[in-house]
Amino acid sequence: MTAVSVRSTLARREARRFHLFVSPWLVGFVLFSAGPILAAVVLSFMEWNLLQSPRWVGLANYVRMVNDPEFWESIENTVQYGLGAVVLGVSFTFLLALLLNQPLRFQGLFRTVMYLPSVVSGLATALLWINILHPDYGLINKLLASVGIQGPGWLASQEWAIPGLVLMSVWGAGNTIVIYLAGLQGIPKTLYEAAEIDGAGWWRRFWSVTVPMMSPVIFFNVVTGFIAALQSYVLILVMTEGGPGNATMVLGLYIYRHAFVYFDMGYAATLSWAMFVLVIVVTAIQFSLAKRWVHYEFK
Amino acid sequence: MEMNRRQMLALAVAAAALSACGDSRQQKQAAAPVKSGAQVIDPNRPSSDDWPFEEAEQLNNSLTWPKTNVPDPASKVVITLGFTTDAVTEVRNAQFDFFFKKRHPNIEIKRESAPFDQFLTKYMAQAAGGSLPDVLYNHYSWTQNLIANKVLHPLDEFIAKTPEFDMDDIPQRGLGYFQRDGALYGLPTDMAPKLLFYNKDLFDKAGLDYPDESWTWDKLFETAKKMTSGSGVEKIYGVSPMPKPAPDLSSVFLMPFGGRFLDVAESKVMIAEPNARDVMARWLDLLLKDKATPSLAELQLLEKVDPFKSGHAALFINGAWVMLELSKQKAFKWGSTQLPKGPEGRTSPAVGSALVMAASSQNKDAAWIYMNEFLSASGYKFRRIAAPARQSAWEDNAKALGIPVEEADLVKKIMAEYASDDGVLRLPANKKVVDTALPIWERAQLGKISVDDALKEMVDKVTPVLSENKIA
Question: Would you state the pLDDT for residue B301?
Fold first, then answer.
């Protein structure tokens, strides 16, 4: 048997195993993701209340969406929430990761404690934050009051409900911290040593070594964080149901309401495509801006 | 081929974007159903501390079970029941099924249970798949939509074949939710009016007389202001809750003044008309000026602990079904009376849920035999329902559940004299009507817009929604 034929037998075997191992995911994706995605395209041109056969309505759902003020209101709320959650989440968790990366005693304990909120159930998180954000009895307003500041109405206020939800969104950011920690530990020590030899202080080392080396990780967290924030609705449903006065009616919640409260499946499918477009547009903008600030070691 | 960091990042982001229309892990975690009271019920001897088997057996044997001319199946059939119940009631229902099967050995029962807030979604999806249970729980606000879409089977033919099924024992004025074109599609599992509850301890402390049948809404406003006191955790509210867009807004708050949220046909918004407008304005003043009813911010925390039930409200407007919970608590003494009178008299909604039969059922006779017994006076007494639709079951059930008999008598009087479905939204758009109007009213409650602007905006935004109420 020649060396070439042995290689080709091995290659075929490897290919077979590859297909065998990847097939469960592929079957699952086609049945449970690709199928519904394609069905949603067709549904968006139909009227369907689940109880009658779907009826073709052409572009009526899209026309309705464009003329629906609550849809635009939900887009505005979604973008506000997404921006707030990402800016605060990414920067705050980065600072936490820097602290947790310091060689301190009980480092492992601190890291565990910071990760704990990520494993708390969503409902418990929602109930906890309803109390933390309560205008009269909440922890945040109590702290503000102790320094003479009258806290806002948070979830009971139209202006402060989104900022309140943004604060809550940082709570479960343990996964982001883990990703940051992995990135921080991957920065070669030699770079810091070289910077020190050049006389760089801690700020210069942070700004000229840590941040550029971490920029791909920050970018990853920004992009995935935005996608997650744009889809968020479950905790908002539990905490505010979109109120007060539709102030927290985000697009995900608006879709949920049309699909599973009004059973207006055609319009809900149309709104879902609007969400997809929103995610793609926001992600594309982020990629185009990334060229200006994300530094890659190897190009 | 090895990928560099940029390519790996791009791949990771693309994968994340692909999943954009799905749930994130965090959302899946949050959406996971909370298992409250999940339990295993022994089908051969269903029992619990609340519902001992021996007591159930004794009660079952003491009751007379009604007959029907609908014949029992000649061979085994299986009927599926879709109910929403809590873990405690589930045991009682299992006991009912146990004894029912002894009376009807050819009828097997497959019982499904879903939490109330997931129930409609689950069964709408099953309806789409053509697999509805034979007998289904129905909230009063859902039934007309299901009738309009021909999902339900009318029950009149079965009632006609069952002379013992005493329809006069069920308040006829509360059946409108389940009727269309002269046919009846649902039979109530429970039905009750709304009442004015009061905290006797707070009234005693304030030295004021308890509310009674002579009260007018003016008297309620005046007393609510007097009863309001304290602040923060010590705050006592005069009355809770205040009116908001809801299916029974007209019947509880507006009709005594000659106003309505929507007209009878649910085709026109009437809330901005003077009679209704004045009522809404008075309540808004009670909230914003007198602070005698909880604000949105205050309700936010109190939502999980109702202000009245926690002893923080003097007056409470709610359904008679809360009497069971109030009877069990010992923190304060309470009483109830009829809702106050207005210039146009006294009104109260009669609301409840029902059992319906799916049009797709293959075992309608067996399904009826089950419904007949479940909804008979004996069925109500066996299940110890706190607010039975059958009026003959009130007294026995009240005694068994520890509800004062005089309170049960009050409910029976209201049901007999005036409680009705008039003014309670029920047509297909009712949920959308409420969801459209509520955020506008919340802005008024926050003091962002005036009552007139809020009501005008409600008219403008709710009117287009009402086209969905047109049933062919």
Answer: 64
Domains and CATH numbers, chain A: 64-293 (1.10.3720.10)
Confidence check: pLDDT of A179 > 80:
yes
Q: How confident is the model at residue B298 (pLDDT cuts 50, 70, 90)?
A: confident
Q: Packing angle between helix B364-374 and helix B87-103, nearest 10 degrees?
A: 120
| Confidence check: pLDDT of B13 > 90 | no
Per-position DSSP letters for B305-323, written without gaps between them: S-TTTTT-EEEEEEEGGGH
DSSP string, B252-303: IIIGGGT--SB-TTS-SB-TTSHHHHHHHHHHHHHHHTS--S--HHHHHHHT
Q: What integer is the mean pLDDT of A251-257?
A: 96
Q: Which residue has the tokens 């969503």?
A: A122
**Angle B330-B331-B333 (CA atoms, 0-180°, nearest 5)?**
75
Q: Give the pLDDT confidence of A262-292 residue by residue, as tens digits.
A: 999 999 999 999 999 999 999 999 999 999 9
Q: Quick one: how far is CA B391 from the chain centroid?
A: 18
- Given CA atoms A290, A296, A298, B4 in this order, what sign does their dihedral have? negative
Residue whose token pair is 């394609």: A38
Please give, rounded to a whole number of angstroms, the shortest distance from the CA of B301 to a CA of chain A.
7
- Which domains does chain B carry? 53-191+352-417 (3.40.190.10), 193-348+424-469 (3.40.190.10)
State the residue for tokens 């309620």: B220
**Cross-chain residue pair A134–B22, CB shorter than 8 Å:** no
Q: pLDDT band at B35, cuts 50/70/90?
A: very low
Buried b (16+ CB within 10 A) or exposed e, B445-460: bbebbebeebbbbbbe
Which residues of chain A neighbour B124 with C-beta distances below 8 Å?
50-51, 263
Q: What's the confidence (pLDDT) of residue A145?
A: 92
Q: Cα dist. B213→B258, B340, B395 in Å? A: 20, 7, 21
| Chain A residues within 8 A of B297 when measuring between CB atoms | 134-136, 153, 156-157
Find out whether B310 and B237 touch, Cβ atoms under 8 Å. no
Q: Is B149 on the interface with A (CB under 8 A)?
A: yes
Alpha carbon separation from A157 to B54, B163, B175 (Å, rounded): 54, 58, 40
Can you tell me the distance from the alpha carbon of B257 to that of A259, in angstroms, rounded to the nearest whole number?
37
With a cut of 60, say whether residue B20 has pLDDT above it: no
| Integer CA distances (angstroms), A161 to A246, A250, B397, B409, B420, in order | 10, 12, 45, 46, 39
ipTM of the complex: 0.82
Output phi, psi for B464, to 5 deg: -60, -30
Instruction: Inspect the interface and report whether the beta carbons of B29 and A121 lie closer than 8 Å.
Output: yes
Residue that is written with structure tokens 């969406």 in the block: A65
* Average pLDDT in chain A: 91
**Crossing angle for the helix pair A161-171 and A122-132, to the nearest 10 degrees:** 130
Q: Following CA atoms B280, B284, B290, B296 in sequence, which dihedral angle do they give, to the nearest 10 degrees?
A: 130
- pLDDT for A128-153, tens place per residue? 898 899 887 889 999 999 999 989 98
Mean pLDDT of B390-415: 92
Size of interface A-B (CB pairs under 8 A): 138
